[in-house]
Amino acid sequence: MTHPLPEGENLRKAVKWISNQRKADPDLDIKALAEKASVRFDLSPGDSEFLARFLKES
Known about the structure:
Blueprint: H1 9-24, H2 30-40, H3 45-57
Helix pairs in contact: 1-2, 2-3
């Protein structure tokens, strides 16, 4: 399944940050990373929800 690209700049940065974190340590908890990224990149509730779904489906 292909995912639409995130529209917001902060959301794109969050996805990239999570990807880099997972490359460095594949055992990191994806849910915890999503929560950290939501705060770190000041994501809206909608963007946070999108990020969680995107990561769950990936």
